[in-house]
Each structure stands twice: as structure tokens, then as C-alpha cells.
Predict the 3D structure of the following.
Amino acid sequence: MMDFALTKQQEEIRQAAREFAQRELLPGVQERDQTEEFPMDILKKLGEEGLIGVQFPKEYGGQGIDYLSFALIVEELCKVDSSFGIAYAISSTFTTGIFKFGTEEQKMHALPRLFSGDALGCFALTEPDAGSDPGNAKATAEKRGDTYVINGKKRYITNSAVADYCMLIASTDLSKGSKGLSAFLVDLKTTPGVRIGHVENKCGIRSAKVAEIIFEDCVIPADRLIGEEGSGLRYALTALNAGRISVAAQGLGLAEGAYEIAKKHMMERVQFGKPIYKNQYLAFKMADLETEIDMARLLLYHTVWKQQNGENFAVEACKAKLACTNLAMRVTTECVQNMGGAGYMREQNVERMFRDAKITQIYEGTNEIQRMIISKNIFK
């Protein structure tokens, strides 16, 4: 028998995340969008409330609950501030890689600080010439005795300008292409030879810090290799599958947040002697949007259900990412339109959500990449 109800614990976590977002994120969200400052103090508060690492074991500082609880938190945060929500989610992508493939020492080195809200992680795969094609990565990690020497540049790395830790994908053998990629745990703030390059000036998610990471003869201990040499791409794709669920939750949250703002506006705004929602054309558009939101939510939660039950969820993660992020773009666009001039103004927040939504169709694998993976599965 299928049960679509959340557990009592999941409901409580969702409510706690919702209240946190309204109390801590909403008051300064417009200012952060303009100043592009990431609020580490709010991250610390999130950790103090036990809302970081809910899907990871208690021995590392997590809550030992489940992945749906994590997705619910991302969804609720992104209803209000998707810059903060995606920074939280990307840090979890880093955590997934370390938790699944790292040594016990590596886990204990990073995870407790991340779950307390004292630190942030990032995931460094993309390069100037290696975006959708990670096999073209040129960053190198050369083994020298009991160290690795890293050289290269990573680009468009979310959280990098404020992160403490990085899961770095670099080549230990360029001649092998993608089979020569390996993964490393790097302390960004304390390791010589690492510096933050250009910090991006973005259309959306403006308070999430996206920047280059430059490695110049950066020396790290050999025990910072994650897993085995040559397995970096496999580790990265595993982390990205979880990351795609995060971005799907971001897209869903953006759509829900914009929808609620537009709904409220349409009930209060009076034209021609009646609230504008009584215009059947506008009301029917909202009916379509609510239906699409409900469908996307079911697809996302089903994907998480498969993940939690140990089933292969890679294709479903692509479907959820594709559906929820396209939904975010469609809903935010329609909500701006339904609100007219008010929707275009910054104080209404919908225009910010509209700008934030676009990137969800691009990162963690563009939606074209998601279609490639889904179609290959259809015709295998």
C-alpha cells in the first residue's frame, strides 16, 4: 500500500524549517540580494536548531533521520531565500561525497563542523573547459612522496568564496581522461597554494558566493585522497545524483514561494471593482500552476523515496531536476505577469525568484544533460 503522508517527525522538521525561514531569512533577503553577502551567522543558527545534516548519522553530528527531511528543509528555505537554500544544499553535496567515500579521519575532520553550522563545504568539478564534459578537466594532482601537488583552476564553484572545505576533482593521470580523475578533501582557508579568484556577479542567487578556486603548487597530504585514484568521476556523479535532488527541491520551493506571493496579491488587488483573481483567465492560469506544482512535488518525493529505499534513483533524479526547475522558471514567469507592474518591483520578491529560477535549469547538469541521460535510459 502506498502512503503519501509525511511522518510526524518529517512534519515537525518541515514546520521548523518554515518558521526559521520566515524568522531569520525573510527580514534581510532583499538586502542580501543587493549586497551579495552570505549570512554565516544565519547558517550557524540553522545548525543550532539541528537542521543541518538531518540525513547523516548522529556519530558525525547529524540527526540520523532521512533524506526526505533534508529535501523538505531545502524546499522551505528556498520558498523564501534560494541563495541561502542552495548554499545549504551544495554544502550537503560535498558532505555526501565525503560520507560515502571518505575515510573515518576525513569524516571526523569535516562533518561535525559542517553540521554545527560552523563551516561550509563546496564541490569543485567545473573548469573553464570542463563543464558538462568533466573528462576534459585539466586540473592536476601529482603524487610526490606522501603528498599531492595540485595545480589548476576551478570555475563557477558555489560557496567557494566562503567555504572551509572542498571536494576537489582533479586528474592524477591526464592520459586516461575521465578515468584519470580523482577526488580530494582540501581545506580551503588553511592550505597554502589555494586562493579564491574572480567572484562572479550573477543574475540571480546573488548572496550565494560563486567564484573561481585557483591552485598553484598546492601541497596536501596523501591521506586527503578520497577513496582510490581514478575513481573521482564515479564519486562526483554519485554526489551529483544527490545534488540533483537538492536542486529539484530548490526549484519546487521557488515555484511554491512565488505562487503564494502571487495568490495573496491577486486576492488583495482590486481592478474594475473586483479582486483580480475573479478574472477567469488569471484564475485558470493559477489553477494550472497549482496542478503542475503538485505533480512536480510528487515526482520529487518519489525520487527521494527510491533513494531512501536503496533503489537506483539516478534517472529519477534527472527527471525530478528537469521537471522542478522548468516548473520554477514557468511559475515565477507567470507570477510576475499575473501581478503586473507590482511583480516587476523588488519589494514583492517575485522578481528575485524569477532571477533565481534561471540558474536551476543550468547547474548540477544543464537540463539538456538531464534529457540526454533520460533519453539514453529510454532507448538502452
Observations:
- The mean pLDDT is 96.
- The first strand starts at residue 121 and ends at 124.
- Strands lie at 121-124, 140-144, 147-158, 165-171, 181-187, 194-199, 210-221, 225-226, 270-271, 274-275.
- The chain has eleven helices and ten strands.
